[in-house]
Amino acid sequence: MTPGATLAVPSGAARPRLTFLGTGYLGATYAVCFAELGYEVLGYDVDAPKIAKLTGGEVPFHEPGLDEMLRKNLAAGRLKFTTSIEEAAAFGDIHFICVGTPQRADSMAADLSHVEDVVVRLAPHLHRKALIAGKSTVPVGTAEWVEQLVRRHAPAGSHVEVAWSPEFLQEGHAVEDVLRPNRVIFGVRSEWANDMLFAAHKGVFDLATTEDREVPVVITNFATAELVKVAANAFLATKISFINAMAEICEPAGADVTQLARAIGYDARIGNRFLRAGVGFGGGCLPKDIRAFQARAQELGVGEALRFLHEVDLINQRRRQWVVQLAAELLGRPFGPAGPDLSGVKVAVLGATFKPNSDDVRDSPALSVVRKLSRSGAEVSVYDPEGMENARREVPDATYARSVVEAVTGADLVCVLTEWEEFRTADPVVLADLVAGKVVIDGRNCLDPVLWRRAGWEYRGMGR
Ligand code: UDX
Predict the structure, then answer these.
(1) Which among 152, 120, 151, 115 is positioned nearest to 135, based on CA atoms?
(2) Which of 425, 461, 462, 459 is nearest to 440 (CA)?
(3) Predicted confidence (pLDDT) per residue in 411-456, tens digit
(4) What are phi and psi of 379, to 5 degrees?
(5) 250, 285, 415, 446: which one is catalytic?
(6) Using CA positions, which residue lies closest to atom 19 of ligand 1?
């Protein structure tokens, strides 16, 4: 757009009106944050109870700072939620696709049925020019396919354009990541789509200007935009598995992976972030994204290029198994081909979520270890500050304690598997009086081994 020119917004509003289709973690956070930036926003979902909660001012998941921001923007009248796709279609100038793309049950590939569903529902109601902008993490080629779906289903036909603008929000930091992104990506085919995305992000750029920051923008084609997201997640997963592979070596070699990570991280080319060895990565993104990426590369005939990601996945899975193996070793239990025999052993597991400051237990390493310990015959008592409800739904047969104290009382072994502040700062002297055996596995290398050993504990970290 020529500088100074004003963009003709299809609805006639001064700023584009935004819809976020799918109000899960991604869509709900974006809807609230963009309302906070001053946009008129409508969140849409097929899940009526979820929409009712959001309309009532309640965020259906745990994300620091989001609740107050939701209530503030509902009250200001800038933010609404609906289960009516007609209403969303009539309202929006830009429709952001924020639905989930989970792993398919029958393969490693991404399940695109929610993307298809929402586009096919929306398109027939689009009677004026609009932009559909994908945010969901998708296999490369999806934007083009969405474009074909729109051509087939939208009466406004080619007046409805498509763009892809992946997001990079991290749970627990989601509000910051949306308001103050470290970059934005616009995958576009036309100048109009580009101008619309700029207009939709003006609030983000203005905030940056007032804070004397810059937000880099990468303008590119569909395929690159789609790939940016999966490439970034593949890189992060690889970094974590790299340091976990080093942990595997440190263990028999008598080295300390936390010091190793610190030492290599001082090299700015390597950097110290995402180098924390432990029970590995989980969550709703990294594990399924590296699998979907491999599946897509296979389809493109370049599967070999990503064969290393299979190894990244295997290293990650081995960390979970290693905790169980270590438990058997520390408790002097035999380890057979079917795994260890931990019958009669009481284990306290501190942590259920895939990382702290979240209530998300999707593909959580902590819960995977809980399952493995239970399968080995151990009696497992789990405590997590925020993830209890979700954990109970996921692993109903474990025992759930109401506090750290309740979980560890009478335990033969304590495993810290999510690095919640409450666990990091727990007093090992106090806990020592409650347990049956002073043995601790620090699955996140988040405890101070000196303090714990001084309090009489046998301490084992990951790779140290
Ligand atoms: C990730 C990406 O960071 C984000 O950019 C993308 O948009 C979505 O996926 P998220 O799933 O919220 O975000 O979690 P993240 O903070 O990346 O952590 C992923 C997992 O890796 C967690 O289980 C965490 O405990 C683990 N992790 C992270 C490590 O084991 N070691 C590390 O050094 C860092």
Answers:
(1) 115
(2) 459
(3) 999 999 999 999 999 999 999 999 999 999 999 999 999 999 999 9
(4) -95, 115
(5) 285
(6) 281
Verify whether residue 285 is a known catalytic residue: yes
Closest ligand 1 atom to residue 354 Cα is: 23
Q: Rounded CA gap, 115 and 359, in Å?
A: 25
Asked if pLDDT for residue 85 goes beyond 90, the answer is yes
| C-beta 236 within 6 A of ligand 1 | yes
Contact 142, 118 (CB under 8 A): no
The span from the CA of 54 to the CA of 442, in Å, is 37
Question: What SS3 class is residue 340?
Answer: strand
Decide if pLDDT at 2 tops 70: no
Please report which confidence band the pLDDT of residue 53 belongs to, taking 50, 70 and 90 as the band edges: very high
Contact between 118 and 88 (Cβ < 8 Å): no
Per residue in 252-273, pLDDT tens? 999 999 999 999 999 999 999 9
279-324, pLDDT tens digit by residue?
A: 999 999 999 999 999 999 999 999 999 999 999 999 999 999 999 9
Ligand 1 closest atom vs CA 233: 2
356: CA distance to ligand 1 center in Å? 10
Query: Residue 413: which H helix or E strand, with range?
Result: strand 413-416
Backbone dihedral angles phi then psi of residue 85, each to the nearest 5 degrees: -70, -30
DSSP letter (8 states) at residue 361: -
Q: Please, what is the average pLDDT of the chain?
A: 96
Q: How far apart are the first and last CA of the chain?
A: 56
Burial class (CB in 10 A: 0-12, 13-18, 19+), 154: buried
Residue tagged 């979907």 (tokens): 292
Q: Which amino acid is at 86?
A: E
Q: Are 27 and 43 in contact (CB under 8 A)?
A: yes
Q: Which H helix or E strand runs over 267?
A: none
29 has pLDDT over 80: yes
Does any ligand 1 atom lie closer than 6 A to the CB of residue 383? no
CA 408 – CA 436 distance, rounded (Å): 9
Rg (CA), the chain: 24
